[in-house]
Design brief:
alpha/beta, 507 residues, disordered N terminus, 5-stranded antiparallel β-sheet, 7-stranded mixed β-sheet, binds nicotinamide-adenine-dinucleotide, binds flavin-adenine dinucleotide, FAD/NAD(P)-binding domain
């Protein structure tokens, strides 16, 4: 066996583990951790950038570190007796830097090694059944999996080619912002766009949001996008709905680095005026918009293109469709499921026992793992509801189906909708609370199938709805779950009272 390795460390060219995980984001870390926990099996994670993945350095952590001071300032600005705080941009960016550990993953590597998971640096691809080739500056290395290879490579941003030549910002630049563009145009109206406009406007950019759809946050209840739209406009953000950007030009585009303005002015042409369209009533989109920077936030797709899938007879659709051989699994954004950290970690937790229980292969295969097997579900996995919090002002916290999704699924549903701020616990948090809350109830089963809360600090309320859906608690039983007074959870009382009387009593 040849010895070689980076920085003088002794590494073998070839190595064998029970589980080889490609990608060290939250899903990959959890897949490795829970596959070997309490089993005596071995696991390695191959990571080409930073252990901890997109979430830790470029996505969830820095975005929420930037949004929290903005939220606190907004709250303070709506409480008589407190002067609206001045945001100290440098201090906020410094706090963001500390939350991303200065883009240094030593802590995450130490954590992995501490739980017995090896970390190999490099870009991995499938080189055959159970075989992973890793390329790094130190050379090529081959890893073999006795039981399973787990694809946890996350997702890549979609950048339409007509925008790409302008070297626009992606979400990494927005979360890693160093230079605040004076005029920032954002294309997109989904989660990333709505969160990024919130912190970039607060940090001082004059933002124009260009939204192709008729509304913001199209996958949530309509009243969620309406509340966020009203709030953004009240803060001075220009929002053009139903507007497509048809052309982008930037004569002096330059890759100046993460979070820095990427060159000279950028000019966007929109479809305003085409077919008599004016963007939206009272606020027509101009045909041309000039900005200092452009952020493109129009979705992400599973990062599967460099994995050599065709070499093992597979396509990206096989991965996202779950048509995989028994030695191969996918978790997290790479699997094409809800692209959320908590969802990827959950799927890794429930799949891990099945990974460990795959029969060992090869002469040195470890004994079969006793007591492991497919994870027991209380619910059909398809029925486990996905929660999400969008950290805008107001916050949007939802779980399970919207009313429309439930109807589209053929359910006979009844809904209850109330203004969130009409309960004392919410009204006490700040003056002028906005937003509504809604329960979606399956009339036949008398249980929740979805809930949405829009308002101040609703992020902490939604988990009660998740528990109610997973526990299949009938709504008449939920009436005995008494919220403390005066807390935001009292919105549950108003919602349950707004349901038809026959659903409130035991059948
Ligand atoms: C701006 C932004 C904000 C977000 N905020 C939230 C939030 O608040 N809450 C939430 O739940 N979700 C949020 N998300 C989504 C969340 O970041 C993702 O769902 C999550 O990171 C997915 O985890 P993952 O482990 O599947 O992939 P990732 O975190 O993307 O990790 C994948 C890892 O695989 C590595 N990799 C890829 N290919 C290879 C290869 N061939 N070889 C070796 N390594 C490879 C990558 O370098 C990366 O480190 C946000 C996303 C963005 C963009
Ligand atoms: N707080 C959170 O949980 C959080 C925060 C940020 C991101 N995320 C995750 O990251 C994922 C990606 O976020 P995102 O905002 O990029 O995607 P998204 O799917 O939420 O929104 C994309 C938006 O872009 C629009 N769009 C698509 N193609 C377009 C085009 N060519 N031109 C103009 N508009 C176009 C879509 O209609 C949609 O409104 C989300 O699905 C979310 O799960 C989560």
């Amino acid at each position: 066996m040849t010895e070689s390795g980076p920085q003088g460390s002794q590494e073998r060219d070839t190595d064998t583990y029970d589980v080889v995980v490609i990608g060290g984001g939250p899903a990959g870390e959890n897949a490795a951790q829970y596959a070997i926990e309490g089993t005596g099996l071995t696991a390695v994670v191959v990571e080409r950038e930073l252990m901890g993945g997109e979430c830790s350095y470029y996505a969830c952590m820095p975005s929420k570190a930037l949004l929290r001071p903005v939220q606190v300032a907004d709250t303070a600005g709506n409480l008589p007796g407190i002067e609206r705080p001045r945001l100290d941009v440098d201090a906020i960016l410094a706090r963001r830097d500390s939350w991303v550990s200065g883009y240094d993953d030593a802590g995450q590597v130490a954590w992995a090694e501490g739980i017995g998971v090896d970390v190999v640096r490099g870009a991995a691809r499938l080189a055959g059944e159970r075989t992973v080739a890793v390329t790094s500056p130190a050379g090529e290395r081959t890893l073999t999996a006795r039981r399973a290879v787990v694809l946890a490579t996350g997702s890549d941003p979609v950048v339409p080619p007509e925008y790409a030549t302008a070297l626009p910002w992606g979400s990494r630049d927005a979360t890693g912002v160093r230079e605040i563009p004076e005029r920032l145009a954002i294309i997109g109206g989904g989660v990333i766009a709505c969160e990024a406009v919130t912190w970039m406007a607060a940090l001082g950019s004059q933002v124009t949001l260009l939204v192709r759809d008729e509304r913001l946050l199209p996958r949530t209840e309509p009243f969620a996008g309406e509340a966020v739209l009203a709030s953004l406009r009240a803060k001075g953000v220009t929002v053009h709905l139903a507007t497509s950007v048809t052309e982008v030009s930037r004569p002096h585009a330059e890759d100046t680095g993460l979070g820095r303005v990427h060159g000279g002015e950028v000019t966007l042409r929109t479809d305003a005026g085409a077919d008599g369209r004016t963007g939206e009533e009272g606020d027509p989109a101009p045909g041309e918009i000039v900005a200092d920077e452009l952020l493109v936030a129009v979705g992400r797709r599973p990062a599967l293109s460099t994995l050599g899938l065709d070499g093992v007879g597979l396509s990206a659709d096989d991965v996202t469709g779950g048509r995989l051989p028994d030695w191969l699994l996918a978790v997290g954004d790479a699997a094409g499921e809800a692209p959320l950290t908590h969802w990827g970690k959950y799927r890794a937790r429930v799949l891990a026992p099945a990974v460990a229980a795959r029969p060992g292969q090869g002469p040195d295969a470890a004994p079969d793992v006793e007591g492991s097997g497919p994870a027991p579900f209380a619910l059909d996995p398809e029925e486990v509801p996905v929660p999400q919090v969008v950290f805008t002002d107001p916050e949007v916290a939802s779980v399970g189906m919207t009313e429309q999704e439930a109807r589209d699924a053929g359910l006979d549903v009844v809904t209850a909708t109330v203004p969130t701020g009409h309960v004392a616990g919410v009204a006490l948090l700040r003056d002028h609370p906005t937003g509504k809350s809604r329960l979606v109830v399956d009339r036949q089963r008398r249980t929740l199938v979805g809930a949405t809360f829009v308002g101040p600090e609703v992020a902490e309320i939604v988990h009660a709805a998740t528990v109610a859906i997973v526990g299949q608690v009938p709504v008449h039983v939920l009436r005995h779950a008494v919220p403390s007074y005066p807390t935001g959870s009292e919105v549950w009382l108003r919602l349950l009272e707004a349901l038809p009387v026959e659903l409130r009593a035991a059948p």
